[in-house]
């Protein structure tokens, strides 16, 4: 490419009027132009000028841009803000327009075009350089240098620029691509390289004039410009991706869909005998629920073989450490388990099996008879919608009432959760509310369709302690006033024991114990007992250290064989390390999955 | 019902917070107006300085090739080039206030007349292109985002991203060349140049301008839609079992738009720069052709005028974009302060 002009420029200049405007032939692979000159040779010769000028323009951009950007970053804050604003403003103007403007001052020609493109490109580089320099300038060693008296240009060239050079190289590579395109565009408009010199842009202009006779004369330079610009652009992006993979789509390549569906039929759901009453009194019945994520080879089991039910008006607590699968159980009930997880088992709401419903009936049932209150009220409300819209929409959709009626219902529920001036609050956006207020709004939103079941997934974890108590009071009051069943999911055993009627303890994706809160003192599973032991107690002498459960909750992918709790269990026997203990019903009510406890049980019962 | 401390926490916030939101709007508008004024002043100074920066004597250029020293001297006086710089600027700015942009060196027409004659054609072209970009990119990006959410359809994602990257990086004047070749030269379906017939002659130029920015924007909208779809508030909306139409149009779209609009200014600059060059490719009588011709014959009043007008349009549209952004996402008021 560099040598082409020396080798071919004579041949490329050979013209022959008899050969003018020929289409491609064996003699001229791409045909000839208006003067009978060979197009392929001319493209090769023009490459040096096109790419050379683009490199010069990019060099101008790089020098001006990095000095302007880096220098701006070093200015004292008020002046820096003005400088950054200036760079931003210049970026809003089309680079081509800036280049034309500079070209207009200097005069149409290669020099003006190159300088114009160089200047126009410098603002983008300046923008990136200033952002990078600002982050580098805050680092300790640059601060130290500043304290030692290294100032101005020395600080810029010795400390800032070397540290941002690698990222700037990427930006500059992309800038070459832009420069090639802009220079070709200017030449194409007649504002760049002037005859008798020619670059690809100028060739394109000539080609377009012969469009109907020899389209190749226009298409060939267009293709060359595109390919060349694309090559520089892509190599810049490839460099960027190799340095910073986050710039790429950010999705996880390990995820792979399409795995076998879990076999659902296992042992029949064992439930508390109190729960075995007629199904119409049952708000929720979950049978053999399993959730797993199919991966390349083995799949990850998040939740295994969960069965339980909740009576109407009951408050059930689900307790477990993080990673125990309690949130996944909640998501599986309302069919919100994120892709690509696979759910198996049956969920019945008000006696209706969700898997047997049509999409429409399912939407209606899940939309009206169950509501979820999520952990973080700060992120669970849509920031761009007024609270009123978010409150009323589910009632409008599922109960077909109009906006005004839905707003009256919403105002009533807002008052119920102790939000004053309800009508005015609905005009506001979520960011105008405090965390506790937002969680009240979430609860009011859940009440819109008078659900039979409210699932509260760590509803108070993100809130401070005084607000926690108020939110729990609101939930208890709803439970009392509407006979709404509530499933309270928490890692906090004392919160659950203060508010619920019954307790499920989960460990490593399984239920290990179920018991009434009144029976808490008689818990059998060593894990439950350990949880009870670590609950901080006011009566404890202040000098006595707080208890904790030794060891860690197992990771999903590395669950121990047998009972998952055995590595942390003081009572573990050989059998616990091999076989998973079944969840058996106790005579006194409740269920427990523990070989040791079951042995005691059978011992007692016989 | 529980009253007492709970109710009192809820009550006192309301009245003051509405006041806060008005104050935020006020400071937002005030800040935008100040920066608008500064940018416009910068534009006026820049276009004024342009003629003074030209190597050589503007009067000699204005006089043309067959000028005499006496004529040049008369022109210098007429153009006020012998006055102090500040006086010159004052008269330039004063004329601008009366929408007097000077007289073309070559055609002797008032620049204002040239611009008012040509601006409708350019606005129609840029507007059509903008509509094309928005109407193609946002639905396409949203759809691609919905189909590839949470890592679904990975092959489709690669095809979409790859195609959009390649199309997005093809320069507009080359798109114009390819499109002209296919539709005008080869298929002979549409006119290759000129502004006649008005509708058919608009299709190829508008497509040429819109294609690359639309591809870039679609890619951006998809990534932004993926981000939004992974947010907690979308899970909340899904938990209400709302129809897909409401989830995507009411809950996803405004949040995607706010992110897409922050790049709206860059895309718009791209469209206007594209319009300048595409007008020349398709030989349309617009501001772009006027500007390029003026640069070629060094007709400085016309260059000054068109650059000024294009600059004002860009600044105005960017301000409008910021306003829409503030309305879509009330939080952006706080960020700008």
Please tell me about this protein's structure.
The complex is a heterodimer of chains A (606) and B (337). Chain A is an alpha/beta fold. Among the domains of chain A are: 48-248, MetI-like fold (Orthogonal Bundle), CATH 1.10.3720.10; 501-606, no CATH class. Chain A has helices spanning 4-13, 39-74, 77-92, 95-106, 110-137, 140-147, 152-188, 200-209, 216-243, 326-333, 359-369, 387-399, 403-416, 422-425, 435-447, 465-482, 493-499, 526-534, 574-578, 595-605, and strands at residues 282-293, 300-311, 315-319, 342-349, 352-353, 370-373, 453-457, 485-490, 502-507, 510-516, 584-585, 591-592. In chain A, the strands form 2 sheets. Chain A has an 8-stranded mixed β-sheet with strand order 6-7-8-3-9-10-12-11, with helices on both faces. In chain A, helix 1 packs across helix 2. Chain A is elongated, with a radius of gyration of 36 Å. The longest helix of chain B has 41 residues, at 13-53. The relative contact order of chain B is 0.12. Chain B is an all-alpha fold. Chain B starts with a helix and ends with a helix. At the A-B interface, helix 3, helix 4, helix 7, helix 9 and helix 11 of A face helix 1, helix 2, helix 7, helix 8 and helix 10 of B.
Q: Tell me the span between the first and last alpha carbons of chain B.
A: 40 Å
| Helix residue percentage of chain A | 40-55%
CATH architecture of the domain at 48-248 in chain A: Orthogonal Bundle
Which runs of chain A of at least 5 residues are low in confidence (pLDDT < 50)? 245-279
